[in-house]
Amino acid sequence: MPMDGTVLQNRYRVLRKLSDKGGMGIVYQAEDQRLGSTVIVKETRYLQMKLEVRDLMLKAFFREARLLANLQHPALPRVSDYFAEGDGHFLVMEFIRGKDLEEMLTERGAAFPVDDVLRWADRLLEVLEYLHSHDEPIIHRDIKPANLKLTPRDEIMLLDFGLAKGAAEGLQPASSVFGYTKQYAPLEQIKGKGTDARSDLFSLAATLYHLLTGAAAPDAIERVTEVATGNPDPLKPVKFLNRAVQENLSAVISIALALKPDDRPATAAAMRQALRLVTQSPQPSPIIVSSVIVDEPTKIVRQQPPRPQPAAKSKSPESFTDNLNGVRLEMVYVPGGKFIMGSEKDDSEKPPHEVNVLPFYIGKFPITQAQWKAVMGDNPSKFKGDDLPVERVQWDAAKEFCQKLQQLTNKAYRLPSEAEWEIACRAGTTGDYPGTLDEMGWYWENSDSKTHTVGQKNSNAYGLHDMHGNVWEWCEDVWHDNYKSAPADGSAWLSEGDSGLRVVRGGSWYNYQDASRSTNRGRNVPSIRFFNIGFRVVVSARTLNT
Fold first, then answer.
1. Which superfamily does CATH assign the domain made up of 7-94 to?
2. Counting Cβ atoms within 10 Å, is residue 315 exposed (0-12), middle (13-18) or buried (19+)?
3. 3-state secondary structure of 228
4. Is the pTM of this model over 0.85?
5. Catalytic residue, candidates 142, 160, 432, 466
6. How confident is the chain (546 residues) per 10-residue block, as mean pLDDT?
7. How many CB atoms lie within 10 A of CB 151?
8. Residue 142 a catalytic site member
């Protein structure tokens, strides 16, 4: 262990010790006497390890040092040198001026502004995209507030690669040998089962949680212990602790903090795209309302415009039931016809416009877990129960379900267009809800933070349940910021728009009241599985009459 004043490699004069990670990892501030600059020198020691582990780690050190020396990203300090001297192995890195976020949290004694955290998160996810996209992905393995520094230029930097490793090296059995920071470490790292890109996403999410709430999230061991004993996961949504946090931001963090890696976003890019929905547009996001809006409960309209008239006389029955390998799927007839789609309440719902929808059938309930398992064989849902709506379903997976359903029933099942979904939800009414929302659906104030058995709330005039709340429902359409140039025939709007986002409708158990309005629109990244997004299916009436 070098003392202050020690010169390493006849070049680096140790100025002071900055941190000590249990004797195995020590960080020094030093002077590069050759260049006259300040640097960070990180020492790693392996003497306390078993011989076979030590040899493995020494090889990994030099390999990792070469990897890190080739990194070039403005949010990463440059690694300029590495060497062995005495009993230690050393990395030399650029010295970054500024304060780390752990210091700043302590000084503030409170959470950071949401906009600042979102800006930092976007930059850090960009860095992780860069690190994870290498031919030999580099996993940081110790993301936490103390390893994030804000420079005098207000730029966030990701520091301390002392625990990083190249994921392709095959060092998984010894992956936890370097240690971890319990508050921010994923379960797989704590248990020494190996880490990958999703492990970094967990640590980043735990860090964002701390920055947004001013308090660390329950650690993974505490959480898994509670769950294993039949208790609820003690992790509370960020929005519960900080009302300024948008719902979709809170949801993305909760998803990235999933105990199982497979339940987290698959990549940094996917997580970054989901978080960008918070800042890209003033329009509502899929799981989102930026503030609680409590309207006077909407009553059924007494003097309504004429109910939608069928576009053509149909010979179809009002409903039918399909057998999905022993599980019933109830489909309800919707007559279609002309109606005014949209509203003046939000820019994304403008302009209100007339749409003429052909008759179709739609699921009486959102697809349940029993129905999903009968067709797909698995169950991706966070909340388990055969009669609960299936959730954590990607848009592509919902499409695959429809395809398999077609093969099973020989009917042309598909996702609804946004227009079909809205006319089915409205069921001839023009208000936000056909009654009060408490009568019609599950939302944040009455859901007890979970999904509920389908069909427990009142149906609308068409006999459809859970159109408001419980889970958001995927539609076929790509996202458009408004209805300008929208199709007038009720078909899915697939041209132009943002093909990287798909429409969701109806609100969920996780959302405040306004999200569940009949006309409210949401959007989401199709590749991320949210615990509050499911779907229901439709069949065009004309396909059953041919």
1. Phosphorylase Kinase; domain 1 (3.30.200.20)
2. exposed
3. helix
4. no
5. 142
6. 86 90 74 95 73 69 80 92 86 92 95 96 97 89 94 93 50 46 93 91 98 96 93 91 91 94 93 83 37 29 36 56 96 95 95 97 98 96 96 96 96 98 95 92 94 97 96 97 96 91 96 94 90 97 79
7. 13
8. yes
